[in-house]
Amino acid sequence: MSHRGIRVARPVACGLVVWSALLGAVGTAQRAPATTATAKRGVAKPAAVASHAPIPSAAEDNAIVKRYCATCHSDARKTAGLSLASFDVAAAAQNAEVAERVIRKLQAGLMPPPAAPRPDPDAYAALVAAIERHVDAAAAAKPNPGARTFQRLNRPEYARSIHELLGLDVDAGNWLPLDTKSANFDNIADAQALSPTLLEAYLNAASAISRMAIGDRTASPIDTTYTAPIYTSQHPWDHVEGAPYGTRGGIVVDHVFPADAEYVFEVDLVSGSGSRFEDIDLSINGERVALIEYETGPAGGADGRGAVPMRTEPVLVKAGQHKVAATFVRRQEGPYEDLIRPHDWSFAGGGSGGPGITTLPHVKDFVIKGPYRPTGIAETPARQKIFSCRPTVPSEERPCARQIIARIGAEAYRRPLAAGEIDRLMPFYEKASGRSGESGRASGSAGGFEHGVREVLEAILASPHFIFRLEKEPDSAHAGSAYRIADVDLASRLSYFVWGTPPDAELQTLAAQNKLSAPGALEKQARRMLADARADALGTRLQDVEKVHPDPNFYPNFDDNLAEMMRRETTMFFNNLVREDRSVLDLFQADYTFVNERLARHYGIPGVAGDHFRRVQYPDDARRGLLGQGSVLVQTSLANRTSPVLRGKWVMEVLMGTPPPPPPPDVPPLDDTGEAKDGRMLTTRERMEIHRKNPTCNSCHRFMDPIGLALDNFDVTGKWRVRENGQPLDTRGDFYDGTPVTTPAELTHALMKRPAPLLRTFTENLFAYALGRRAEYFDQPAIRAITKAAAANDYKMSAFILGVIKSDAFLMKQAESVGTQ
Questions:
Q1: Cβ atoms within 10 Å of 807's Cβ, excluding its own
Q2: How far, in whole angstroms, is CA 813 from its chain's centroid?
């Protein structure tokens, strides 16, 4: 089925739309009236979304389409592959897919194109309303909740599920390959391809995690190596979260020790060129267990490399997961001279962390060796979660194992286990433990009770019932019919949407008793879950920021530390919007953000001291909402220069849901359209003007470029600037509706004049993530209904989230075949 014209899937958009749709928790705090705060700071008040113009006749609507649309979209020309020659507004529902393409373009004001004749505003708005009215009425008469195949746990869901089940924090990327993205997300069911390699990865993960959870007193010594990212700064002011205070740089890891035993810790450095003493503090859970003294010097070599690895004496460590830090003792504060590559030390917040560019040594690899001479296994949080009973005699072992299987299995499978399912899991226990029969007598190998439990835990984690989110289709369903999904499946949909985890005990109990579908029960549970701190886990970091590394020759003070601060800013910003139940429109016009000292200095915000993040007001209107945040500005730049084209395209595609068409073939890139002029380099604007002289290019660039130029005062790293290549910036332009847009504030004002596309795109992305499938053309009536209902609630975040949860598409499903799954 075609989705052309209504999909907004792009890799660069992935992280942002997650923030724009998912982060945070709805609390009880209410926001102050937005109109008062924004009016004081000059933020544009959005125009009304819905038009209340008089309803014209069908003939008048069709006359408008014929006069203003069908000239380009004729049977002969078919501009953009679309003909509207025979389009009948009154019969729009009969070709709803085309109708939705028309609605999207008209709602955004993109058609007719600039400079082309247009109907008067009232007639224009009435036409959009008429097409929507006919399509929505037909959808209400014959609802289509859509269908999707089963989902599998993606990386984030897998890691969170393991945490809830066993209390372990794991990096799913250690076993599972990258998830395929579709429609901006990595949880879209029909994009989650299966392969023997992927299934083997889940099996390997199950084996490793079951051993991590239970422990292994017979584990052989191995070397586990952790490598610090080369783009992470380890300068004196860069404290790693989780490390003891008074330290700098280094590395912090969560490591699972399989047994109570001795372990050796080894640190491999990228050494600086200067001669200075550096002490390495080795701590476990914040407590120092060793101090390694080391002197850097000529042994490091001329290029600052070649330091000999340092190691500790054997250290006794209890089994379980512990936070281990290998960091430098901080011996200085403030600026210092870097003899290899000078930096801008106007504040203690710059620095580039790549190897070979600093006078100070940096941790490169951190190796944990062991276990040696194990003595047992301590009672870890993971073992406490697993062993809910402890047999004291052999006859108690088998009943205890069944009890553990029933409880862990129900949590992992997200539903109660039938007796037959427990029976099918027991052989894994019996074979590994060497026990069988009700008496628990020995029957072969002597693995023991714990070994048997570990084996059955591995079987549970490798089961399709854990890996896949299966939804049972009723036997009575026939292809094409709609049915309400069972409460146990609804509980999983709700929990993975809000928490990204399996349902908790309360939700599972309601579902098992078929009480979740009772009037008001679902909304009550949703509000409970949104108010829980676990809802913050829904926030994901911006997926592509770490892939954009500004050229250190031009931006030496940008590093992964600053990039992570930008990700955290956006996460906290959206968490706050949802927790305080603020308006979705704050995403675009908020006059505040969340920063620490270094990020505030980078943005030019005064009066912020310390490493902790806090909410601050912007000092002027240069930054507003997401468009003023570095996480967006960096990912829409190139390594060595800004890209108004990328930024304009990003706004149109990710925020407005109206991506421009791809460029035609053989169009030269922007970099090749200009050379040195009068002894100086051309500015980005001059290059763009040369590029736009091609009429084919101009047809799209006239939409994108003014938007991107309005943001060109932000450099590649999101820092404010007024010059480029020594020349004053020229950011003048006109939004496609004729509104002047020279500054970010003017761009925000232009977007707020027509907020409908912004609200629709937000809802569409929220909808797609919650359902695990793309939002199709037949979903648009439901998306409009959610948006219109939210208008009556001041566009609060909770109105959108609850609107999706209470939609037919969330509660129901269209049958694909009889009695499948």
A1: 20
A2: 26
Decide: 182 and 191 in contact? Cβ < 8 Å.
Answer: yes
- In angstroms, the CA 622 to CA 713 distance is 9
CB count, 10 Å around CB of 449? 23
What whole-number distance in Å separates Cα of residue 225 and Cα of residue 438?
Answer: 45
Answer yes or no: is pLDDT of 299 > 90: no
Answer left, alpha or beta for residue 794, where phi above 0 means left and psi between -120 and 50 means alpha: left
- Vertex 389, ends 383 and 390: CA angle to 5°? 85
Whole-number Å distance between alpha carbons of 806 and 795: 16
In the predicted model, is pLDDT for residue 22 greater than 80?
no
Question: Which residues, listed in sequence order, are joined to residue 251 by a DSSP beta bridge?
Answer: 326
The H or E element that residue 268 is part of is strand 260-270
DSSP letters of 697-742?
A: HHHHHHHHHHHHHTTTTB-TTS-B-SEETTEE-----B-TTS-B--
Cβ 804 vs Cβ 810: under 8 Å: yes
At residue 131 the predicted structure's pLDDT band, cuts being 50, 70 and 90, is: very high
pLDDT in tens, 758-773: 999 999 999 999 999 9
Contact call for residues 748 and 627 (beta carbons, < 8 A): yes
- SS3 (DSSP) at 543: coil
Distance CA 61, CA 192 (A): 43
484-512: pLDDT as tens digits: 999 999 999 999 999 999 999 999 999 99
676: how many CB neighbours lie within 10 A of its CB? 8
Tokens representing 298 are: 């000529």
Q: What is the mean pLDDT of residues 73-89?
A: 92
Both tokens of residue 698? Answer: 């101009």
Distance CA 85, CA 616 (A): 54
Q: What is the mean pLDDT of the chain?
A: 84
DSSP 777-812: GGGHHHHHHHHHHHHTTTTBHHHHHHHHHTSHHHHE
Q: Cα(210)–Cα(192) distance, rounded to whole angstroms? A: 25
The letter for the amino acid at 150 is: F
Give the C-alpha separation, 705 to 440, whole Å: 75
Report the distance separating Cα 417 and Cα 412, nearest Å: 10
Encode pLDDT of 244-259 as tens digits: 888 888 999 999 999 9
Judge whether residue 663 has pLDDT over 80: no
Q: Count CB-CB contacts under 10 A for residue 571.
A: 23
